């Protein structure tokens, strides 16, 4: 639905009419009716002026900054006011307020409204509960995920007439897009593949595009969409933590062994080059074994003093 601009009269031009002219006419008609003792023409004129004043006051429309007014006349779309200021139009116009401000929310949040008793006392205070969405990733692993979405309305006609509630529509579509996106990526992936944990920028860019495509018909533009929470589900969190720890230990030990092999190789080359000790095959194997044990062991090795020869 195309948005069009509504043109109304400046409200400041109509203020003298409703502040000075019509009230003055009412006072004049009442005074004249009393002085002439003739209520019928002047009294009727005063009543009509009062009714006109009450009805005409409904024609004033105020547009605040970062706000728009969608104007309708008996169910027909007239146009939209976006420029801030005071306007005056048909008293039968219905001007619906639409916020043009940038709004943000986090998926998975539920708001509990505040409740009051008959005396106006607060019985239940309002609060916001945060519950990330629980979905399965590409590998079927259950995870918890949530995202922060920043959005604003750019087409007021579509936001009012195409969807029932633009804010609720954006919330629901963002939740659906996040769930669908999470099922297309793995939490952790191998080298060369996109993953939720290791490629946040790529995933967020894709999320923004997915949400924008879903809410386009509501006249909404998505400014930003970012992952705010990402974790394994509680039922597998401990097992996945052990898996990550095991992977870290393996990677660390592999690095240690790689460095130890290089050090042993360098030591043997230096000993042979300087002709300090001549090793046969068995003694060289024993030397390598001892050096690897010293370099790769967890604890500090205890030296043993050999009082005999090298072959004893």
Outline of the structure:
By secondary structure, this protein is of the alpha+beta class.
Task: Please give a structural write-up.
There is one protein chain. The chain has seven helices and 14 strands. The protein has three domains: 9-100, no CATH class; 104-111 and 128-232, Tetrahydropterin Synthase, Chain A, CATH 3.30.479; 237-296. It is rod-shaped and about 140 Å long. It is α+β, with helices and mostly antiparallel strands and 312 residues long. The strands form five sheets. Strands 7, 12, 13 and 14 form a four-stranded antiparallel β-sheet that branches. Strands 1-5-2 form a three-stranded antiparallel β-sheet. Strands 4-3-6 form a three-stranded antiparallel β-sheet.
Question: What is the topology?
Answer:
Layout: E1 9-10, H1 11-36, H2 39-56, E2 60-63, E3 67-73, E4 76-81, E5 85-88, E6 94-99, E7 103-106, E8 109-112, E9 115-116, E10 122-124, E11 127-130, E12 133-136, E13 142-153, H3 156-161, H4 166-182, H5 200-215, E14 220-232, H6 234-273, H7 281-296
Antiparallel strand pairs: 1-5, 2-5, 3-4, 3-6, 7-13, 8-11, 9-10, 12-13, 13-14
């Amino acid at each position: 639905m195309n948005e069009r601009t509504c043109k109304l009269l400046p409200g400041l031009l109509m203020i003298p009419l409703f502040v000075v002219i019509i009230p003055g006419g009412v006072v004049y008609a009442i005074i004249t009716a009393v002085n002439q003792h003739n209520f019928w023409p002047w009294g009727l004129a005063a009543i009509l002026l009062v009714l006109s004043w009450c009805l005409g006051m409904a024609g004033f429309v105020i547009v605040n900054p970062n706000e728009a007014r969608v104007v309708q006349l008996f169910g027909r779309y007239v146009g939209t006011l976006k420029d801030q200021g005071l306007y005056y139009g048909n008293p039968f116009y219905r001007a619906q307020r639409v916020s043009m401000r940038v709004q943000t929310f986090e998926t998975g949040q539920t708001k509990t409204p505040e409740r009051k008793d008959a005396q106006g006392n607060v019985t239940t205070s309002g609060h916001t509960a945060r519950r990330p969405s629980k979905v399965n990733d590409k590998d079927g692993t259950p995870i918890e995920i949530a995202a922060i979405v920043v959005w604003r309305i750019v087409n007021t006609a579509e936001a009012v007439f195409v969807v029932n509630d633009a804010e609720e529509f954006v919330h629901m579509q963002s939740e659906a897009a996040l769930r669908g996106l999470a099922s297309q990526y793995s939490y952790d992936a191998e080298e060369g593949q996109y993953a939720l944990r290791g490629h946040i920028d790529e995933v967020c860019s894709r999320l923004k595009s997915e949400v924008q495509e879903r809410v386009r018909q509501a006249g909404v533009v998505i400014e930003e969409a970012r992952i705010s929470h990402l974790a394994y589900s509680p039922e597998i969190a401990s097992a996945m933590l052990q898996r990550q720890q095991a992977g870290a230990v393996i990677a660390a030990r592999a690095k240690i062994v790689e460095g130890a092999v290089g050090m042993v190789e360098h030591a043997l080359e230096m000993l042979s080059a300087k002709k300090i000790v001549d090793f046969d095959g068995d003694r060289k194997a024993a030397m390598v074994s001892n050096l690897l044990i010293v370099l790769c062991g967890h604890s500090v090795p205890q030296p043993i003093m050999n009082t005999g020869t090298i072959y004893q």
